[in-house]
Hints:
By secondary structure, this protein is mostly beta strands. The protein has one domain: Glycosyl hydrolase domain, family 43 (Tachylectin-2, Chain A). The protein is built from three helices and 22 strands. Strands 14, 15, 16, 17, 18 and 22 form a six-stranded antiparallel beta sheet that branches. A four-stranded antiparallel beta sheet has the order 1-21-20-19. Strands 2-3-4-5 form a four-stranded antiparallel beta sheet, with no helix packed on it. The site of beta-D-mannopyranose has 9 residues, from strand 6.
Amino acid sequence: MKKEFVTRCEGNPILTKDDIPYKVETVHNAGVTKFDGRYIMLFRAHLDTGRSIIGAAVSEDGFNFKARPEPFMVPSKEREFCEYEEYSVEDPRITPLEGAYYITYSAYSRHGIRTGLAKTLDFESVERVAFITQADCRNTVIFPEKINGRYARLDRPHSDMNPWSIWISYSPDLRHWGDSKLVMKPAAYHWDAMKIGPGAPPIRTDKGWLSIYHGVFPTMDGHVYRLGVALHKLNDPAVILGVADRWILQPEDKWEVVGYVHNVVFTCGAVPEEDGTLKLYWGGADKVMCAGTAVIDELVELCLTDSRPPI
Ligand code: BMA
């Protein structure tokens, strides 16, 4: 068994609050994609009110990012949207789809947490599309292509009856979603025993959709957030072909162990490259952004050869 599946970038943390030209307290949980030959990062940042906004940064190489001068998204003032995101916009994920970039984000308000969908063509302007879940549901990731004529997404509703698990839904138009089904649950007395949620938008491989998700384990010293991998069937992603039994990344560097929330690695984005590697991005302890690389085939093999039941 390989020792490490993710190679951390030597420059970690790659982006911190000191790199941001406006006042923020954290830089974490960023979605990343390639646009126009460069890498665009949309990161979550806490303000000193404790609420969060979304900032943007750009990179030529995927590791050295420069923040843009202004935030990218703040809670909307528009009548249709303001009521449901008045507290915060958090944890953006970016899916390139049909020539546009769709951003799913957690919208926080007095009514709970739901998923907002926004769209951009150029990362200069952004428009809200709709809220695509009720409360309480977040960690929504959209697949980067239609599957059997429909859009598909993974998400994580909250429940008192069931440990928080990963569900799938489908849509004809990205606004209206249904045919929802639970696809993966936490495993008892396992590193992700308490709750799981989708992380990066799924990545297409020859053997299936690679999903990098987060899992949480409760300890006497607080919760530990780690990352794992699952493989979904290409033409029917409700079917999980394998879930790796072990994590691929856990808090180890000091900025992952100690921060705004201790012991957290949390991903919202990974970028597949033509050479078969991927760049993985994660927030360290809800305070800084980190990056690393992994070999896609190795993650796929891990799902298939060292698997546990998904439910
Ligand atoms: C989750 C979300 C994430 C955060 C994580 C660890 O519930 O709020 O944004 O990174 O907790 O604090």
